[in-house]
Amino acid sequence: MSASTATRNRGRRDGGAPLRRKAARMAAVQALYQMELSGDSVEQVLHQFLQERLGEPLDGLDLGEADRDLFSTLVRGVAAEQGDLDDMVAAVLDEDWPLERLETLLAIVLRGGTYELSARPDVPARVIISEYVHLADAFFGGKEPAMVNGILDRLARALRPAEFEDGEPLLGA
């Protein structure tokens, strides 16, 4: 392989990392939703997705290959910490909107974003919020993306105040 081919391939790999992470987040939300509806275990769903579904079009979107490590980390982490994540989300919801009132898929999107905000300090909060707002937009056509933005913004400011010392709102929050 020539040096220019190696450089081109490395650039393609590196340039595709955000898309692989986006695909991993999308697949993780779908896997968690499947677990919620079917009662399947984390390991059953991970096996099914890792063997059969990752790399396939997800909800009609061909995102390419997903970051398998991120996918597994998200599914395992959200499933293991669901109670704590729900408590964090419930703490920032309006009194009129208890967690139980949220649609299952919306709650799962919020759990994923909350998990990443609390467990992945290596990823900037603004990036996490943006990714989960885009995920909500892929699944919902109404006000849900704005709701995800507002809830995750409040959580991020509580969990990572140093990232928000500039006072700038997130994504128009």
Based on the model shown, name its key terms:
single chain, 173 residues, mainly alpha, N-utilizing Substance Protein B Homolog, Chain A, 2 domains, 7 helices, 69% helix, globular, disordered N terminus
**CATH class (first level) name of the largest domain:** Mainly Alpha
Distance from N terminus to C terminus (CA atoms, Å) equals 48 Å
DSSP, total strands: 0
The amount of beta strand, in percent, is under 5%
Mean of pLDDT: 85
Tally the helices: 7
The second-level CATH architecture of the largest domain is: Orthogonal Bundle
> So, the CATH homologous superfamily of the largest domain?
NusB-like
CA radius of gyration is 17 Å
Given the C-alpha coordinates, what overall shape results?
Answer: globular
| CATH topology descriptor of the largest domain | N-utilizing Substance Protein B Homolog, Chain A
The H-and-E topology, N to C, reads as: HHHHHHH
Enumerate the spans where pLDDT stays under 50 for 5 or more consecutive residues: 1-14
Decide which structural class fits the backbone.
mainly alpha
**Biggest sheet, in brief?**
none
Instruction: Estimate the helix proportion, in percent.
Output: 55-70%
